[in-house]
Amino acid sequence: MxxxxxxxxxxxxxxxxxxxxxIYLDSGATSQKPQQVIxxxxxxxxxxxxxxxxxxxxxxxxxxxAFEQAREKVANFLNVQSKEIxxxxxxxxxxxxxxxxxxxxxxxxxxxxISALEHHANIVPWQELCKERGCILKVLPxxxxxxxxxxxxxxxxxxxKPKIVAISHASNALGNIQPVEKIIEAAHEVGAKxxxxxxxAFMHLRPDLRKLDCxxxxxxxxxxxxxxxxxVLYGKYDQLNALNPLRxxxxxxxxxxxxxxxxxxxxxKFEAGTPNISAVIGFSAALDFLNSIDYKxxxxxxxxxxxxxxxxxxxxNGVIIYGDTENNIGTISFRYKNEHHFDLATLLNGYGVAIxxxxxCTQPLMKALDIDGTxxxxxxxxxxxxxxxxxxxxxxxxxxxLEI
Length: 404
Description:
Layout: H1 4-7, E1 23-24, H2 35-48, H3 58-78, E2 85-88, H4 91-101, E3 111-115, H5 124-133, E4 136-140, H6 150-160, E5 164-168, H7 180-189, E6 193-197, H8 202-205, H9 209-212, E7 216-220, E8 231-235, H10 237-241, E9 253-256, E10 261-263, H11 277-291, H12 295-313, E11 319-322, E12 331-336, H13 341-350, E13 353-354, E14 356-358, H14 363-368, E15 374-378, H15 385-402
Parallel strand pairs: 1-13, 3-4, 3-5, 5-6, 6-7
Antiparallel strand pairs: 2-8, 7-8, 9-10, 11-12, 12-15, 14-15
Helix pairs in contact: 2-11, 3-11, 6-7, 12-15, 13-15
């Protein structure tokens, strides 16, 4: 296992020789990539480039083998079967595939539950499905500070008896680790299917999906050291096969005639056309990187950074922090007095600090909190105390400039 202290050196962008400072605190938007991921993608195009599946020549066979080995790695990481892993274009794409697949299974008046903390990608597909099928969207409530109200949420599930419950494993805007075990348990008691948006949680929490027992789980590779344009959709095998596919074309068919077409079983059923092969190869290298780290050490390190940042922010009068600060993946969402988050983010960028400002694709959540947006600092294991100290100093100086 590689020591945490040595990992930062393996990220080229964090070790550039530029004279300008660069403090990257926006991993919730996308993670940085280690050298071995960059090299894996480069090596594929230089030495192995061929289309996968059905090719009889050696290069195609090698590419296919690497492609399917990556699927096995994801399955092992999540403690599921490889046939339950579908490659997609990202978490958003995965949720759309699931929502589309449920169309034929829903009737007018049936209920779909989401939480008030959801990313737009886990709201809009369900809204559109409700419009099309005449279903009703119900929202699991949150507290004034932006934490899921577990008791009220469970009560709502038992009262409404939804067909689907879709909830984030961790909030992208606030970093809250959601009590998904209790939500899944309640949902299954009333016969609901459960979908977890794991885009923020996958790298930080390394979920064991057999233990969680969710029906579907989605995430994006780019938030877990991998390339952009690639996602994963996990589904229990019988439930995957019960969904209708969203896209049609080559690879996913069993037999085609001009009269009718039959489809293969999952995962091929949902993988029409040439896949994002290079991204899959790159993500395979990302999983190797993550598997080289002791998970408990990684979590301990990230939580240490998070609580150090939290303690430093709390020393600044006027800083208002939102969300669950006890159960958190390492993301802090805050405002400073009534100053606009965009102004503060712009000043911080002048100090070489990369953070996120705005509503973070969670406009309903911001409305519930009665704000228009926040500053979001999202950490990863390649950050260190120097990053946090530099950010805090830049924040204090930016505040001074705002108050001149």
